[in-house]
């Protein structure tokens, strides 16, 4: 299975910026409020430590990271709910401005060296943007939460495909929530094309990409269970359909961020779609051959190889090797069917226009994200 770890956005340069401290911005009369804000600072520090790790993808570590984020989010949402009350309108802007909320993009084209986007390059030279909106903080933490769920899915794929697919569905749910989350116009503080993570189109695309990856895991599980070639063909083509939808969102005319996205990320999306379309054609041919339609099976495989030849080769050697291996398998199957047809079946090879087209079955759905709210009242009366 093709794998790609989407880099994690960063929230500060440790030696350049002070830690964001909710409790020391202003002195409030109510001790309970100060206590809650100090606890919020501790929880955010734990999230910072998680995203600044030098290693990622280990299941136990990812689970710990998820727990930290899940503890921070309800407290952060509670702060937002309290700041948004009419009585706190004045303190709201002063409080947020004093916090100095800073984040960097990890999907931007300019975050990578010429050889490709890597986590190392992100750690070395991120560009930080300060935005005077608490929704900026919420958006970025939710974005990282979705990435961590996706990391969990990747870590589980070799040991528990059912749980892996579930984690992909949960990640898709968070990305979908982000794509619909109301937020202010960030362009006042940051050129939006420099921060793809903030756009609805990129969040929507990543949600669809997670559904595609979850469906790919489901297809592998179906193969493990010995399901029919016809079903496998539909499942793999469903993956390519999800990827096509993700691409459509990324490359839409209204989305000016596409040209600013990491080429490695776009390369991954393209390779994933092409690989599973090729797998779908292979299984479709196997299904046709099992029904005695060897001529049509040969035609389908020839069409698949012709399309694969036109596919832009991935610059990643691992992905290129996987695609070429799949193409080699398709070639072997086609050669076997051609020998069978020549010696026994003697069936006509239909023209491409006469061949059956792959049919997709998108069975993986997102798991909606639901935030658990604390509902604790904060009093921002200054001392």
In short:
The chain is mainly alpha-helical. The protein is built from 11 helices and 2 strands. Helix 7 (200-224) packs antiparallel against helix 8.
What does this structure look like?
The protein is mainly α. The chain has helices spanning 31-51, 59-83, 89-99, 119-124, 134-156, 161-180, 200-224, 229-250, 263-290, 294-310, 317-345; strands at residues 102-104, 128-130. The chain has a domain at 22-226: alix/aip1 like domains (Serine Threonine Protein Phosphatase 5, Tetratricopeptide repeat). The protein is elongated and about 95 Å long. Residues 4-369 form the BRO1 domain. Belongs to the BROX family. InterPro entries: BRO1_dom (IPR004328), BRO1_sf (IPR038499), BROX (IPR038898).
The biggest beta sheet is recorded as:
2 strands, antiparallel
Q: What is the N-to-C succession of helices and strands?
A: HHHEHEHHHHHHH
Our count of helices gives 11
CATH superfamily caption of the domain at 22-226: alix/aip1 like domains
Largest sheet: spatial strand order: 1-2
Q: What does the radius of gyration come to? A: 25 Å
Mean pLDDT: 89
Overall 3D form = elongated
Q: Distance between the terminal alpha carbons, to the nearest Å?
A: 58 Å
Please provide the count of β strands: 2
Query: Segments where pLDDT lies below 50 for 5+ residues?
Result: 112-124
Strand content: under 5%
Tell me the name of the CATH class of the domain at 22-226: Mainly Alpha
The name CATH uses for the topology of the domain at 22-226 is Serine Threonine Protein Phosphatase 5, Tetratricopeptide repeat
Class computed from helices, strands and strand pairing: mainly alpha
Range of helix content = 55-70%
| CATH architectural label of the domain at 22-226 | Alpha Horseshoe
């Amino acid at each position: 299975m093709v794998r790609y770890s989407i880099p994690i956005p960063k929230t500060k340069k440790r030696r350049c910026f002070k830690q964001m401290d909710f409790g020391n911005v202003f002195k409030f009369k109510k001790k309970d409020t100060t206590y809650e804000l100090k606890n919020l600072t501790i929880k955010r520090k734990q999230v910072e430590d998680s995203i600044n790790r030098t290693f990622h993808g280990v299941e136990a570590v990812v689970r710990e990271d998820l727990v930290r984020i899940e503890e921070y989010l309800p407290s952060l949402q509670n702060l937002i709910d309290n700041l948004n009350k009419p009585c706190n309108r004045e303190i709201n802007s002063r409080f947020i401005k004093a916090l100095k909320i800073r984040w960097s993009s990890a999907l931007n084209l300019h975050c990578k060296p010429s050889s490709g986007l890597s986590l190392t390059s992100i750690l070395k030279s991120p560009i930080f943007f300060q935005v005077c909106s608490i929704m900026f903080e919420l958006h970025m933490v939710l974005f990282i939460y979705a990435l961590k769920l996706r990391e969990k899915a990747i870590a589980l794929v070799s040991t528990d495909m059912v749980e892996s697919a579930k984690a992909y569905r949960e990640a898709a749910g968070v990305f979908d929530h982000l794509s619909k989350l109301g937020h202010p116009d960030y362009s006042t503080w940051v050129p939006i094309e420099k921060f793809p993570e903030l756009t609805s189109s990129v969040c929507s695309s990543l949600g669809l990409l997670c559904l595609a990856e979850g469906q790919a895991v489901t297809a592998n599980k179906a193969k493990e269970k010995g399901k029919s070639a016809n079903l496998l063909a539909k499942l793999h083509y469903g993956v390519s359909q999800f990827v096509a939808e993700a691409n459509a969102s990324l490359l839409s005319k209204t989305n000016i961020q596409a040209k600013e996205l990491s080429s490695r990320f776009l390369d991954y999306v393209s390779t994933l779609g092409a690989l599973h379309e090729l797998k779908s054609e292979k299984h479709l041919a196997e299904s046709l051959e099992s029904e005695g339609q060897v001529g049509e099976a040969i035609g389908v495989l020839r069409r698949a190889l012709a399309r694969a030849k036109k596919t832009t080769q991935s610059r990643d050697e691992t992905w290129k090797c996987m695609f070429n291996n799949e193409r080699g398998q398709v070639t072997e199957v086609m050669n076997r069917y051609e020998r069978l047809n020549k010696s026994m079946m003697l069936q006509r090879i239909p023209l491409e226009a006469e061949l059956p087209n792959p049919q997709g079955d998108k069975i993986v759905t997102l798991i909606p994200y639901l935030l658990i709210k604390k509902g604790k009242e904060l009093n921002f009366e200054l001392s």
